[in-house]
Specification:
two-stranded parallel sheet, ATP-binding, flat, single chain, 57% helix, mainly alpha, P-loop_NTPase, 10 helices, IstB_ATP-bd
Length: 187
């Protein structure tokens, strides 16, 4: 038998994973035959999984990927792409982030550099790292606007970017080969 007050308290404490499973357990005769510790463990596991899932969704959303469906598992290793599967697997582990190393993806337009960058970023989010994806023109505009604000916006923006563990700047290579980006020296 379900205790409605307990259920309401769980919801008020924002323990919705536990609340949902508690409701399910009260209707399922097989879980009612389990002991307290077993049922409690199931409740805690459900809440933990819900929180991890929510955190991952939030990290992916905050990263503003151009393709939030990109994934390491979805990379296609066609011979003409000359992708090193072992290197991609190694990068997917995230050691380059821990070692403060940079990755530059180069290749012809349309070869999937952005998609691979998004896939590496999403993989970093799966490791619960803070990631930000931004195109260089947007970053330049954001920095330029903040620089000329009188409310300390520039310093706040720089502080925000220093908290990011993986910053993916797309279209960087194109910027260095395009004269319309002479405004690069904004700092």
């Amino acid at each position: 038998m379900r205790n409605e007050q307990t259920l309401e308290k769980l919801k008020a404490m924002r323990l919705s994973g536990i609340a949902d499973l508690y409701e399910q357990q009260t209707m399922d005769e097989t879980t009612q035959s389990l002991g307290f510790e077993e049922r409690f463990e199931l409740l805690v596991d459900a809440e933990s999984a819900r929180r991890k899932s929510n955190k991952l969704e939030r990290l992916i959303h905050q990263a503003t990927f151009s393709d939030p469906n990109a994934s390491i598992e979805g990379i296609e290793y066609y011979p003409d792409r000359h992708l090193d599967k072992n290197l991609i697997s190694k990068l997917a582990q995230g050691g380059y982030i821990d070692n403060h190393q940079n990755i530059i993806l180069m290749g012809a337009s349309g070869n999937g550099k952005t998609w691979i960058a998004n896939a590496l970023g999403i993989q970093a989010c799966r490791q619960f790292r803070k990631v930000k994806y931004i195109r260089l023109p947007e970053l330049i505009d954001e920095l330029a606007l903040a620089k000329y604000e009188a409310d300390d916006s520039y310093r706040k923006l720089i502080k925000k970017y220093t908290k990011i563990e993986l910053l993916i700047i797309d279209e960087l290579w194109e910027a260095f080969h395009n004269s319309s980006y002479e405004k690069l020296n904004i700092m």
